[in-house]
Amino acid sequence: MEKKIPELYGSLVFNDKVMREKLPKDIYKALRKTINNNTHLELDVANAVAVAMKEWAVDNGATHFTHWFQPMTGCTAEKHDSFITPVDGGEVIMDFSGKELIKGEPDASSFPSGGLRATFEARGYTAWDPTSPAFIKDGTLYIPTAFCSYTGEALDKKTPLLRSMDALSKEATKVLNLLGQSDVTSVKTTVGPEQEYFLIDKKDYAKRKDLIFTGRTLLGAAAPKGQEMEDHYFGVLRPRVAAYMHDLDEELWKLGIPAKTKHNEVAPSQHELAPVFDTTNVAVDHNQLTMEVMKKVAEKHGFVCLLHEKPFEGINGSGKHNNWSMTTNTGMNLLDPGKTPAENIQFLVFLAAVIKAVDEYADLMRLSVASAGNDHRLGANEAPPAIISMFLGDELSQVVESIENDTLFKKSEREAMDIGATVLPHFFKDTTDRNRTSPFAFTGNKFEFRSLGSSLSVAGPNVILNTAVAESLSQFYDELKDSKDLDSDVKALVKKTIVEHKRIIFNGDGYTDEWVAEAEKRGLYNYKTTPDVLPVFIEPKNVALFTKHGIFTESEIDSRYEILLENYVKTLHIEAKTLIDMLYHEFLPGTLKYSDTLAQSIILKKQAVEGICVKALEDSLKTISANYSKLYELGEKLKADVLTAEGIEDYLKAAIYYKDTIIADMSSIREVADATEVLMPSDALPYPSYADMLFYV
Ligand code: ADP
Ligand code: MG
Predict the structure, then answer these.
(1) CA-CA 20 to 30 A from 32: which of 62, 131, 370, 590?
(2) Averaged pLDDT, 387-403
(3) CA of 263 to the centre of ligand 2 (A)
(4) Over pLDDT 70: what percentage of the chain?
(5) How far is the centre of ligand 2, averaged over its atoms, from the C-alpha of 234 (Å)?
(6) pLDDT exceeds 80 at position 697
(7) How far is 468 from 606, CA to CA, in rounded Å?
């Protein structure tokens, strides 16, 4: 019989319940202290935890363990070791020590390090993150870890994330203590990432080299129908998709991932999943796992799950919404305005800190979501613009205005909603509407950073948010710590911050040209593409921020900057080569074959009937042949330009060349190929069309 959900939930996780059952009381307490207060863990505690963890894992069918980490590839990495240890008499025991739990030594030489270590300096370490629970997947015990080099530099996405959480906790606690919250000892950031994805049939996927090599289609004419009927969003789930989602939920629940909401998205074949929020590092781990499990479960259902930001031209791509807030160890959500936000000075301090952070580090926020894939979405009227601004909504904006102008804020009564039919319930309207076009929107008791691409690790954007807000709070503390009249000084500080940074607040439609012009007038950044924004990483103001809070050292910044550039260049290089491959091996031969058929048909018809009219066939043949020549010429140009690109040694210069020249080459090819595709019979097409892929799952 199938397990009930509460039993199923977390059944493969070494969670609090299991710890309490399996660990000696003092050990449990020590571990809990580490998890709750981020204190250091002693080796004897680790040893005891290791024993319990191994027993639990073996009881649940595990034979191996792995240190699971998140290198700069953006994927996760794992190397499995079995628990077996040979003993006398040719037998084995299942063994696992505290040392093995705390520290691993994977070979670091084949992970991107951006020059942090040469290939011969292979040693790297993984260190257990006890604040993210271990779990079992496919017979292996997974231990979440951070990954660093022999010399202690971070080689992963998790280390700086944990550092940024520490920084925020430290600065927020200082400010809260100053404001009289003396029982606050730590502050956690929380994240709930909403994840969009596409499902297409495995059989179609297997026939498309572009999807296989690049995750997106490089060619393909639009289907007769797109998303214009707006009939897919929240639409009824098709049985095959519903079965997939059901399985996906169960797999995630077993891993203790609180998948909560699922629905169809705007584009055909597009869907979304949202979990209940969690502490940031756990949410990041869970999001990485969610993406993995989405792909794995898709296989079982004969699907492929596409997580690319723009798999299909002409319909929406996929993003990820990073819902973010801060909670104290005493359980206060610092972004909860309460019933009377205008009088909630603590809320206003934290709101002001976020406003200041986003205004001062909007460039880094833009940087944190930059990738070749996401460049297709930002500013394309389907996702927020590349300009970072924040949406506060009507009520908070009025509060902010009243502070700025020293006027009294009058709370507008919540309007009762009457839909006009007596049988329908009456309820109160929210005080603010939603704004889908804003990159960073206040949504009641949290901010929603909406610019993330669907395949991105959410670690990066949260590093920036945490660090930038930590910096605001650090400055606030310095300004207030010697105050003789805290009440009025806090109010003055909030007001000053609002006046200085209100340019970042924008409640209107972010998709319009007027906003682009207005944002320029306000002096806001508008970095349209990845190569445009990447250099902000190494700007002195940003280096100062990271080094002040101990998030990145200068060499870590340099290495990450290089990795980002390299990744952009490599992504476009692969795309260009894939397009060349498809053009020469599939599309041109397919076109040629069809034009031969046309030519033969013309000859045959003329032989059969004297004077027969074959004008339509001749016209088709002429167009197809002309397109063949154009495509060939454009293909030769792309090949030559790729050679040029390969010769550029400086990564930034190469990135700019790919952005300006290679992308333009690729879209010229696509234009002609897509116009040719619609002239060809389906069976002459070398791969499934958009219509085939998007409407039949
Ligand atoms: P909406 O539909 O407006 O986007 P939801 O209530 O559905 O809002 O929440 C969306 C996501 O935000 C969910 O993943 C949810 O868990 C997360 N979320 C809610 N509260 C918080 C919070 N305090 N911190 C971080 N994420 C949160
Ligand atoms: Mg949302």
Answers:
(1) 62
(2) 93
(3) 12
(4) 96
(5) 14
(6) no
(7) 76
Q: Which long-range contacts (CB under 8 A, 24 or more apart) does 241-246 make?
A: 241/199, 241/271, 241/697, 243/301, 244/199, 244/297, 244/298, 244/301, 244/303, 245/271, 245/273
DSSP 609-668: STT---HHHHHHHHHHHHHHHHHHHHHHHHHHHHHHHHT--SHHHHHHHIIIIIHHHHHH
The CATH class for the domain spanning 568-694 reads: mainly alpha
Q: Is the CB of 417 under 6 A from ligand 1?
A: no
Query: What's the rounded Cα separation, in Å, for the pair 233 and 268?
Result: 8
pLDDT for 407: 87
Chain region(s) in the chain for CATH 3.30.590.10: 164-412+427-552
Q: How far is the CA of 194 from the centre of ligand 2 (A)?
A: 7
**259 in ligand 1 pocket by Cβ < 6 Å?**
no
Tell me how many degrees the CA angle 265-385-522 measures, rounded to the nearest 5.
150
Does pLDDT of 119 surpass 60? no
Return the DSSP state at 496.
Answer: H
Ligand nearest to the CA of 442: 1
CATH 1.20.120.1560 domain residues, the chain: 568-694
Q: Supply the residue whose CA is at minimum distance from atom 23 of ligand 1.
A: 325
Q: Is any ligand 1 atom within 6 A of the Cβ of residue 435? A: no
pLDDT at 209: 98
Q: Is the pLDDT confidence value at 80 over 80?
A: yes
Return the amino acid letter for 28: Y
| 279 pocket-lining for ligand 1 (C-beta < 6 Å) | no
446 pocket-lining for ligand 1 (C-beta < 6 Å): yes
Is CATH 3.30.870.10 correct for 164-412+427-552?
no
- Give me 427's structure tokens: 């309820």
User: What mean pLDDT is predicted for residues 581-604?
Assistant: 97
- Does the beta carbon of 190 sit less than 6 angstroms from any atom of ligand 1? yes
**Largest interatomic CA distance in the chain:** 106
Other CB atoms within 10 Å distance of the CB of residue 167:
23
pLDDT (tens digit per residue) in 219-228: 999 988 888 8
pLDDT averaged over the chain?
93
Look up tokens 């799950």; give the residue.
305
**Size of the chain in residues:** 697
Cβ 30 vs Cβ 49: under 8 Å: no
DSSP 8-state assignment for residue 154: B
Quick one: tokens of 23? 């660990």
Inter-residue long-range contacts of 427-431, CB under 8 Å, 24+ positions, other chains counted: 431/393, 431/394, 431/395
* CATH code of the domain occupying 2-156: 3.10.20.70
Query: Burial level of 653, CB count in 10 A (0-12/13-18/19+)?
Result: middle
